[in-house]
Sequence to fold (226 residues):
Amino acid sequence: MSGQIDEKKMKMKMKHPLEHRWKLTFWPTNEWNNTTNIITISTIEDFWGTYNNIPRLIELGKVNFAFFHDGIRPVWEDDINRKGGKWIWEYSREMRAELDKHWLNLLLFLIGETLQPSSIPDGEIFGCTVHTRPAGDRMTIWTRGTNPQIQKELGQALLEKMKMTGSLFFKAHSDAIQINSSYHSSAKIVLQQGGRGHGNMRLQNVQNFLATLVRNIFFFLIGVRN
Fold:
């Protein structure tokens, strides 16, 4: 009898390791350089122990959370992130009730290594963030590369697996660094549930050229008047 009890105790103490170690990070609004590492998660038990002790997103004010492979910082400038990008999903106030459900589903897909299609090289996705704001919330999924074909396939998989509605935007970190913004107006790929993606890089280059041309003409005219 005692042997059976000891075996049960051993099974209860056993933990189920994840394929990767993950780090949960927090930072106040707009203070990217003031991040706090909450915990490093390496087992399923670690994950649920952490998740169940954090308030739900809809109960919090302006906050930011990041969930990344251990060793990768949730910033554009990290060596692994420089050549990558991120998918951006924006939530209106009316969609806030769905945010916690989608955030949990995303975390579970990540630790289970089941989010990206098998046709895409392993390790393409390695982190995500969530940002809560009064005007609307945002969730992002970070990728190792920016190849349009791979990203379109990945984006479609995200729409299908996450069962989200609305639009999903992809933006390269190199573009975000240049204009110091992650806003989706200059996104290179846009996908909609049930629709086709469009991500014309040449069109994006033309738009950037025209914007620069208009700005230069504006400053030229000001110089002539003066």
Summary: The chain has one domain: 2-201. Confidence is low (pLDDT under 50) at residues 195-210. The first helix runs from residue 2 to 13. Residues 2-201 form a domain with the RNA Cap, Translation Initiation Factor Eif4e fold (CATH 3.30.760.10).
